[in-house]
Design goal:
Elements (H helix, E strand, L loop, with lengths): L5 E4 L5 H11 L6 H9 L3 E8 L2 E11 L2 E9 L8 H15 L4 E6 L4 H9 L3 E10 L4 E9 L4
Parallel strand pairs: 4-5
Antiparallel strand pairs: 1-2, 2-3, 3-4, 5-7, 6-7
Length: 151
């Protein structure tokens, strides 16, 4: 039977593996330095999903006062479809709620149907679009938000 990953706080020791997942998942990945700054920030919640020493996915969010933004979120391609993303999202939302966050925002490519479906199933709703937000390929961003009291 396959083991389900443990969700835990991201550490600097996870940086190389997180960066590898980031690079494999996005056409314009964040830099290692940008990821490191989020890990070190007191305003950020950075989590990883780990199975037997291997990072299978990660999520990063930043809280400012009573609002938060989901910054970056990815699961290794071979680990997708196993509920890891749903668990990471649930845990980061719980952590943000504990910090007193009232609403969480995010941007997502409308063409990323799996992610849009996951966010909608978690209670996020669409509230607008940001034109030509993404490059390579060029695409609008779908703006979504979740009032935390819906959790």
């Amino acid at each position: 039977m396959e083991k389900f990953p443990v969700i835990r706080e991201m550490t600097i020791g996870d940086l190389e593996e997180v960066f590898r997942i980031e690079r494999d998942s996005f056409s314009i990945p964040w830099s290692k330095d940008s990821i490191k700054k989020e890990i070190e920030s007191k305003n950020s919640v950075c989590l990883v999903a780990e199975t037997e020493g291997s990072i299978e996915g990660f999520i990063m969010a930043r809280a400012v006062l009573d609002e938060a933004e989901l910054l970056e979120f990815a699961v290794r391609e071979h680990s997708r479809g196993r509920g890891i993303g749903r668990e990471l999202l649930s845990k980061v939302l719980d952590a943000l709620k504990q910090r007193g966050v009232k609403v969480v925002y995010l941007e997502v490519r409308p063409s990323n149907k799996v992610a849009v479906g996951l966010y909608k199933s978690a209670g996020f709703s669409e509230y607008g679009r940001r034109r030509d937000y993404y490059m390579e390929p060029r695409e609008d961003a779908l703006l979504m938000k979740l009032p935390v009291e819906k959790l």
